[in-house]
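Handout, section B. The chain below has 287 residues.
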Amino acid sequence: MILAEHLSYTYTPGGVFEKNAVRDVNFTIEDGTFCGIIGHTGSGKTTLVQMLAGLVRPTEGKVLINGLDVHDKKIRLNELKGKVGLVFQYPEYQLFGETVLEDVMFGPLNLGLSEADARKKAKAALRDTGVDASLFDSSPFELSGGQKRRIAIAGVLALSPEILILDEPTAGLDPMGRDEILSCISELHKREKITVLLISHSMEDMAKYAQQILVMDGGKLCMHDTVENVFSHGEKLREMGLDVPDITRVILSLREKGVNISPDIYTLSAAKEAILRIWREKKCSEI
């Protein structure tokens, strides 16, 4: 379980450029949850996840991972690495190994695993991210952008984190590359029951993959609820400079025109079923 208690972070406190990036944020995320994090640029999303991963110490408050205070100075760094994995934007810029396999093995080796165990972990992580075995001995710098992104994510997965945090992992990729990577992460979440926190500007991705959503605005946590409930507040999201999935926008437009349809629909399949049901009811009433 992830527990955030009164988390706040201030950049350059007391200085001319003082900025309250995160302000008194509280939430709980249960094990095995796929949680989306949304908010416009500057809302505090990245600072928040950096505190969750132990990279940035809160100005106030604390983060507990299964009861472990991630900012406790007595906690060994290796102990935290085994719990939380963070994938930054454009993680392929962090690749440096001569081969794909060597690059992904680096993390497990640094945690003290034997070369044989590190190799086993790396191969499993590469398979989980859809990297073909024929590329294991290739230079990562000779591969496509999408393949580099998969390898970089595999490098984090090879550490076997209980919690995987991804900050815009599909930024800059084409729609096919984006869907392939997020599908791999979703399958891993379902199979291994790991907790996933995904920052994304794509409301369609949130609707397709997330179970819950955290909404940040001006450094504050404005909403933390199921996907259905968050997207039912379309007007409130728009006031924050956000949006809802395209299909939700269609549903809300139908409601404005007097169609009696639920406002918490956010997937194409659910919209199709609801519209067909209304159409059948209308036909029956006309007979």
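Note. The mean pLDDT is 89. Compare this with the example in section A.
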